[in-house]
Amino acid sequence: MNLKNVRAGVIALAGASMLAFSAPAAAETLTNDDVLALLEAGLGEEAVIAKIETSDSNFVTDTQTLLAMRAKGVASPVIAAMVKRANGTVRFDDASPDPTVPHTTGFYILVETEGSAKMLKIDPIASTQVKTGGVFGYALTGGIASASLKAVLPGGTAARQTSNRRPTFYVFFDVSGNQSPVFSTGFGSAIVSPNELSLVDLVEKKGRREARVGSINIGGSKTGVMDKDQISFSYEQVAASVFKVTPDRDLAAGEYGFIFALGGGAGPGASGGVAGARVFDFTVK
């Protein structure tokens, strides 16, 4: 064999080897079968959804295919993630009663009428001022009796009303990482769980409503909703950053609200979290 030809062959082989090692691997494209394989392998829903959201995909999302995947046990949140990835955009439907359908960040009440259901978004209201109650008793007893701090809410009734004595709520927290102002605490962070909310019975006054958010006596001051004023509720996560919330007992007719505190105290002895109470209010008829 000609030495020149041998040398050329060696150079060509070396070049091919270098290209083989240096060429990037082809990008993975996720398919319906890949999703099924990941789930069958035991990966949790959250891990599979994260994979869907961060991978190139070629999903088939026609109705029959999705029904077949659901029949194989694929959970609705996973299917929703596939559809969103296939469409390339997120379509919000705030009225949809299905919590797996994308909704804008916020607090919703589920309303059912004449066999149909829809979600209504509850816009939060903020307290306009803090009143101090029981001051006379506080002064008369030298601080032994407590004075109460009350967040004042504008309006005599809530915009959202229901005749259901044990209504269902859904909370859609911000998953964008932008810290939506809906659930901002005022301290550069946001609440991420219904456990950080308190359900309270609002006291009706002339043209306003009040919620007790603190007390003060000779022993010191307390801020936040008092334990005895809270109405217990249960919640469960139904999708990524989506929670279903229900009161643990029937509610009498009246004014109610899910409340959390923001920064900025007010009133004697008050500390942060009183003046900035934010409330998702509703009325039970």
Provide an overview of this structure:
- By secondary structure, this protein is α+β, with helices and mostly antiparallel strands.
- It has 2 domains: 1-91, no CATH class; 106-284, no CATH class.
- The chain is 23% helix and 32% strand.
- A hairpin with a 2-residue loop joins strand 10 (198-205) and strand 11.
- The longest helix is centred in the N-terminal third of the chain and has 20 residues, at 3-22.
- It starts with a helix and ends with a strand.
- The model is unreliable at 1-26 and 264-275 (pLDDT under 50).
Uncertain segments = 1-26, 264-275
Q: What's the average pLDDT?
A: 79
Main beta-sheet strand count, sense and barrel state: 10 strands, mixed
Number of DSSP strand runs: 17
Order of helices and strands: HEHHEHHEEEEHEEEEEEEEEEE
- The quaternary state of the protein chains shown equals single chain
How large is the share of residues in beta strands? 25-35%
Number of domains: 2
Structure, briefly:
Helix content is 23%, strand content 32%. The protein has helices at 3-22, 32-40, 45-54, 63-71, 76-87, 135-140, and strands at 29-30, 56-57, 106-113, 116-122, 125-126, 129-133, 147-154, 161-162, 168-172, 198-205, 208-217, 220-223, 230-231, 233-239, 242-247, 254-260, 278-284.
